[in-house]
Backbone:
């Protein structure tokens, strides 16, 4: 590391900065997974309560389905964003074993650019949906209709952030996680 600093001081500074950014995005990913896991457990409990209420108490709680659908959006979109950062999404990479390392890096970056475009679309169109439906009310729970689309916006923002991090790390020669790989070495909190 000291020799690298002497030869390329600017690159070393960028890598140090990206290590700090990685700690922040790793924290965001952990919080997102915590929210996702909590949402999954709550959704399961709500559905169990709904079934118990319907078949045992003969009094179906009406709020459980609406809250469960809201929670499902959160754990799906946050979990998908974390999957991008951690490299957990499946990929068809047989072709990548046949090309040189630099071509692999270009293709990985191209993939991340597509994810950025997709995540940006989630932000823009999710915001439009939220804005257009904010004045309506979700049945049974009384929340504004736009609340249903906040998970799309947050998930899209995290996808963009995590993909930008991956591109920046790759640009300075740092590793990025791919499918079935473990935690990145410089993310100790």
Residues:
């Amino acid at each position: 590391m000291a020799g690298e600093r002497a030869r390329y001081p600017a690159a070393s500074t960028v890598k140090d900065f990206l290590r700090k950014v990685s700690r922040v995005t790793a924290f965001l990913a952990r919080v997102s997974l915590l929210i996702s896991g909590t949402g999954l457990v709550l959704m399961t409990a709500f559905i169990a309560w709904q079934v118990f209420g319907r078949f045992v108490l003969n009094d179906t709680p009406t709020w459980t389905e609406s809250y469960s659908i809201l929670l499902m959006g959160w754990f799906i979109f946050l979990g998908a964003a974390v999957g991008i950062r951690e490299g957990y999404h499946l990929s068809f990479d047989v072709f990548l074993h046949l090309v040189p390392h630099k071509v692999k890096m270009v293709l990985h970056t191209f993939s991340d650019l597509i994810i950025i475009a997709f995540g940006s679309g989630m932000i823009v169109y999710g915001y439009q949906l939220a804005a257009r439906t904010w004045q309506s009310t979700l049945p049974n729970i009384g929340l504004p209709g736009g609340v249903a689309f906040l998970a799309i916006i947050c998930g899209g923002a995290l996808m963009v952030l995590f993909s930008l991090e991956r591109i920046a790390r790759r640009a300075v020669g740092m590793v990025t996680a791919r499918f079935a790989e473990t935690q990145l070495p410089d993310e100790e909190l």
